[in-house]
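Notes continue from the previous slide.

Worked example: a multi-chain complex. Inputs as given:
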Amino acid sequence: MDELLQEFISETQETLEALAGEVVAWEADPADSDRLDAIFRFFHTVKGSCGFLNLPRFERLSHAAEDVLSEIRAGKRKADPATVSAVLGVMDRIGELAEAVAVGAALPSENDDFLIAALTAQEEDAPAEDAESAAPVAVARQASAQSGPRTIRLPLTLIDQLMNGVSDMVLARNELSRKLRERSADPELDNVFERLSTCVADMRDIISKTRMQRVERLFAAIPRMVRDLGRDLGKRIELTLEGGDVEMDREMVEMVVDPLTHIVRNSIDHGIETPQARRAAGKPEAGSLRLEARQSGNQIVIAIADDGAGIDTGRLVDKAIAAGRLTPDAAARMTEQEKLDLIFHAGVSTASRVTAISGRGVGMDVVRANIERIGGVIALDNAPGRGLCITLRVPLTLTIIPGLIIRAGGQHFAIPRAAVVEILHDNNDMLQVSEVGGAKIASIRSVRHSMIDLEHVLGLEKPEQSGPRAVMVVRSATGVPFAMGVSAVDNHEELVIRPASPLVMASGLYAGMTLPDNGKPMLLLDAAGLANAANLSNVEDDRATRAQESAAQENGAEMVPALRFEELSGERRLLKLSLIERVEDVDTSLFGRSGGQAFVRLDGRLVPVANGLWQFDRPSVAALRLRDDRREACYPVAAVLDIVEMPAVPDMVAMHGMLSGVAVVDGEHLEVINPFALFAALPEEADMGRARGRCVLADAEDGWTREILAPLLRQAGHDVVMGLPVDGPVEPDDIVLCGGADAAQAAEVMGCRVVQLRASPRPVGPRDGSIYRYDQAALMAAIAGGRR
Amino acid sequence: MMDELYLFAVLAGTRVAVDAAEVEAVVRLTDISPVPGMGAHVAGLSALRSRVLTVIDVAALIHGRPMPAEARRLAIIANISGHSYGFLVDSVLDICRMAEGPAPLRGQLDNAWAPHARAIVENEGQPWLLVSLAAFIEGGALAQAA
């Protein structure tokens, strides 16, 4: 009996959830008998089951609803909004009763008679509600195939147990693998273990799929909400739901429900105008609200678009100024996007009055915080007067994120890699930490950040350590970046994140936890939470950048970042930073010279040395690795000093050799390297032994091609491939040589260059672009020309 | 509501009875990783195979005195709204079925215990405070954390 009851309750609850949308859709189109049938069936089933299970209240309610619906089916009655409300009311009550039965509580004792009366009493005043107050919501749902694959119902706990079991298995496998590595290698054993390992990995992938759920579930409650809100506010809304069949992690669905609900409420309350206002603005009376979900890579994108009033950024700014969060001065400098971002600040809302629906001060800041907590991003696309589109991008699954393992106070913590902008050691010259009145300020390349020590925020001891501490610049998307000192950054890993208990989450410092292979649980830090806990100021220090920008504007000069370095000959020079791929110390024994040109052997390749140096008086030199779009070069220097802003055009232009002029930076005159001259001076690439495009000979069977053309090309130093590759790739810098026009066309389709040869000395016509096959000079020029 | 199964344990120096339906297991914890930034009532996290328990120091929650580290050995495991918790106990004595069921509280209860005790269960002639593990989390710990 108990089991039957359980089954009945969960089935009822599930059907209710699914039906809420149907009822609303049916109201919009009362002629839709399919939907009416579905609703009728629901009440009928409930009625039947509860007679059997002896649940008299369920029976009375469903019986009354069934009666009304059958009258509507018979055409004796119209499905007016009041009737639909009453039907919805009965459905709600059934839901409440089911809930009560499920938890074993006493049934709520409100009088059901009232509801039933509401159902039947409509008959007299139904005609009063004429067509004018037609259905406030029209739902267009993308048709989806009704008959899905065969499924069974499983309790969630079973799936969770399965998940845990597989996780246990993975942990055991990892330990076994560690043990195996300690022993001497046994290929046979390794093979078997490898197989087991693959099975376990496959298993884990499959099990994690059971966590996926259709987004439809997320959408299920929306139509009902839109309808009720629309009625309350006297607005008409046309709702479109799309992409309900996209799947996402079950936990993710739970996390997105609240933000999504909030956005939809906002949109109806503040976005979409009343029918009168819409008419005045020349828009259709019914506002449109469109929810769309789609998968994009490993993200789920949920877009909520309305055609309402959009966000009035001017009012946002006024509010922010009134709230003391912004100075009028700063507001005047803000871009439109920055103004729009104000909506994410706490306590700023465009709602001119507080309504029951939204505008209670719990606003978009909370929405954004919730979305970001799960690693998502929220974006606004505002068209004032025409509508607003809010896009949520959330990861497909909560479970795996790239993270950094850091050490602080003798403990390990994880932090999402996305939150970390930069990592420095505190003995780095670019970093200066100063203290004033207890506050620590870190200046990194003359940008000031608030500096906190993780140990301090978490209330941990800061142990003495011999080496330098690591300072990471951390940015949560809500706040201003800040510098955080930790003992060390240990590792970079893909972390399997699981939610921490509400108790731990309540501290606001953590976003979850993870269980690494060593079996010691590790906490995932929440960057925004840390900044909050440390009471960091959220006032953007844009003075430095603004000052630079305005200074640059006054001088009319554009500033670019440049590297200041010292040449081996002792001069200090500047080089545009964007050309420098990285800086590394290179062993001087790797440098050499051939044919008057200096080379250095790096990563198994010969790279030209830009300043021609190859003999040094020290065992290793700092080398700038440079790259234009194609070529790379190495530039050995005595020392890298720092990164500065230099004018894009030097203060004194004086082109000679590799220099383009002199720039004054911080009162120091520095020669600026001319990147154009630098790369132009590099030896021809063809002599560099670098990989080049191949010559693909399309007519591989042709005797002339094979015996005469191929050897000629090989002698000239080209790579020759016989025949068009069947499945292999044709690279863009390959050149196809062929005789026939059709092969030429085929090759052109593949997107590579074609040289067409002809046997006769004369071209066939004026538009013939082919080359006479014995015209060696033209042939070689065509091939070389193809290379550019 | 008669004839219920209870776990009898000593929790924060007091004899308590816990409804066995709340108890998933009693385990010996090996290693507890602290959770910095939390009150003393959160002793830390501990891995039980692939599950991670949030370990609650009930003594700290009730008396404000954390349990000494070497005494943190035994814990009652419970699943409360989908999360696994471990409640540190001094010792676990018995699990048995009580015919009488809970009796109403009598006498002046210590202020510290008052919010947590619901009733009394008689076992072997002695009264045991009936406590709810879920209430420790929902009533006490979360309120302190907030």
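Summary box: Chain B touches chain A at residues 31, 33-38, 42, 45-47, 49-52, 54, 56, 81, 83-85, 137, 141-142, 145-146 (CB under 8 Å). The helical segments of chain B are 58-63, 133-145.
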